[in-house]
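User: For my dataset I need records formatted as: sequence, then structure tokens, nothing else. Please produce one.
Assistant:
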Amino acid sequence: MKSSAALRFALAVFLIALAAVLLQARGRSEIIPNRVPLSSFPAQLGKWDVSTEIQLDKDTLAILGAGDFMERVYQSPSEKLPAVDLFLAYFPSQRAGDTIHSPQHCLPGSGWNPEQNDRITLLLPGHGPFPANRYVIAKADARKLVLYWYWAHDRGVASEYWAKYYLVKDSIRLNRSDGALVRIATDMLPGETPDAAQQRVLPFASAISPLLNDYIPR
């Protein structure tokens, strides 16, 4: 298991290094597309019409690197259900090594322990089906459901290694290395199954889906 993880890590490092070399060899300035900043992402989304902005601390921002980030908790007062936490991280360029961090690496560090990890397929408005991660984490008696995926150029992937593969491919083909992480999380109700929690947050995912292209360029 350790050798397999080391091999995957070495492959990811190689792909990033290769992208940097090829981009430098092309001798052209990288294309940084115009976009709307995440700070203007809607604070109201349909029935989720109450939201609270989460200010990321300096240590978190330092770990994330150079990018545009937004975390906001949305609630639907008409439904007495747990709130939905939305985190968006956009990197205009990943040339210098500021690449997207997997939530699986940072969530355990904040005291949450992994309980279940699955791959699911999402079919959201305006996009074809794509794979995403479904992650159940626990702390004491609390559990959370986390859905997340990597998003770049109107393409969603679940694997961070596939995300790095496409980073290299798009760097060569498009002269762009921008990309994003989309993460949706919610507290799970007592006795609630991951499938039930997923069905509960899918309408929220459908609500944000048509907006993504304004903030994460195609």
